Amino acid sequence: MGISIEDQNKLFENVNIVFHSAATVRFDEPLKVAVDMNIIGTKKVIDMSKRMTNLEALVHVSTAYANCDRQHISEVVYNPPVQPEKIIEAVDWIEEDLVKLLTPKVIKHRPNTYTYTKAIAESLVVQECKDKIPCTIVRPSIVGASWREPFPGWIDNFNGPTALFAAIGKGILRTMIGNGNSTADIIPVDIPVNMMIVAGWYTGAKKAKDIKVYNCTTGQINRLTWGMVERFCEESLLKNPLENIFLVPHPKFTNYRMVKFVRHFFEEMIPSYIMDLYLRIIHKKPIFVRLQSRIKKAVETLEFFTSTEWEFTNDNIFFVSNEMNEVDRRIFNIDVKDLHWRSYIEQYCLGTKKYLLKEDMSKVNKCRKELKNLIRLRNIVFSLVIGTIIKMALLRSVSFKKISQFLFRFILTIASKISSMLRVFG
Fold first, then answer.
1. Which of 94, 200, 231, 415 is the most exposed place for a label (fewest CB within 10 A)?
2. CB within 8 A of 179, min separation 6: which ones?
3. CB contact set of 412 (below 8 Å; sequence gap of 6+)
4. How far is 412 from 417, CA to CA, in rounded Å?
5. Per-residue pLDDT tens digits of the chain, which is 426 residues long
6. Under DSSP, is residue 141 helix (H, G, I), strand (E, B) or coil?
7. CA-to-CA distance for 309 and 183, rounded, in angstroms?
8. How far apart are CA 151 and CA 83, in angstroms?
9. By the 8 A CB rule, do 236 and 345 touch?
């Protein structure tokens, strides 16, 4: 693990609680790498923990989607898709190219190597720790920006929905597959952090014998849907726009791949080709088409989660919360019932702008003016396109001409009759 013998001895003698959250969270990670980091890495942490003379708790951080091949997910460790030692042995001697070729058959119904290896890692934790060292498992769902701590909207990476918000805000991402009625199980990062501390406390202080699992999720407690994310995100990004936006933010989830294809082609690819042509003309490197390809690949890895519904139980969350006193419940908050989603998404988008994109918040009014100009330009272009289509239809369609002429003559006839009646009564 890259730790010197001297430092290891210090750890063995002085550490009381181990928090194991190290993992590769890339969905497209090669299976060999995912096994090495998420399974073998977990085994190394457990081996070290066993040598700690004062260990009171090992807190293993998994994911709520480790068992995403199930619809109902309880706070238990399920049988793994394969025994840990077998997958470790297999990737060790099989050539990397062959492992890559076999990966879809190996992971079967799971969408990626991340969820597959995390499920196996949970099983490894039970095998290695049960009745040997005090241990617990925390399963966060989709980790997002902070709710309260260290301050609202804080975020330091593009994982989860953060990359989507940034791409939507720039106007680059317009559509993706997703069910607007499905639960968007986003959990603010400060909640899992508090949950890890609480789980470590309970395991050590209460001398827990069993390995408790905590589904750190929001869907069954304070439900957010992808349709709400779509609406709140657009509202926030129109209220506090990003700098140098490409198109007016207007995200749309759809269940239909044909709709996604049409919108992707007309609203993402055509503008990207136009912008790249402009960049070539002014002798600059084209970037937009290549950027769209990268975004498309990233979006496709997330669509499994935006179009599928799961039900998580949270009995252990409620149980451990009741074990805490009032002061601890306030300091180490793990209750999301009071989370106001519209305000949270607004802070999330502001955090993306400020902390990740490093944009100057004093220029928000300037960004708003630029957005208004872009909206005007969009409306002008839209009007011109519609006008051109109608004009072409008028010029080319014989049927349209006949209908127009009939309606015109009919209106003239009615107007003539009304005029005659007015003269009679006059």
1. 415
2. 226, 253, 255, 306, 307, 308, 309
3. none
4. 9
5. 678 888 989 999 999 999 999 998 888 889 999 999 999 999 999 999 999 999 999 999 999 999 999 999 999 999 999 999 999 998 888 888 888 888 888 888 889 999 999 999 999 999 999 889 999 999 999 999 999 999 999 999 888 889 899 999 999 999 999 999 999 999 999 999 999 999 999 999 988 888 999 999 999 999 999 999 999 999 999 999 999 998 899 999 999 999 999 999 888 898 889 888 988 999 889 888 888 888 888 888 889 999 999 999 999 999 999 999 999 999 999 999 999 999 999 999 999 999 999 999 999 999 999 999 989 888 888 888 787 777 766 666 666 666 666 666 766 676 666 566 555 555
6. coil
7. 6
8. 42
9. yes
For 212, list phi and psi in degrees, rounded to 5.
Answer: -75, 140
Closest CA relative to residue 219, chosen from 302, 148, 317 = 317
- Per the listing, tokens 């990966």 go with 103
Name the one residue in this structure whose structure tokens are 């049409």: 262
Sheet arrangement for strand 17-20: 17-20, 57-61, 135-140, 212-216
Predicted TM-score (pTM) of this structure? 0.86
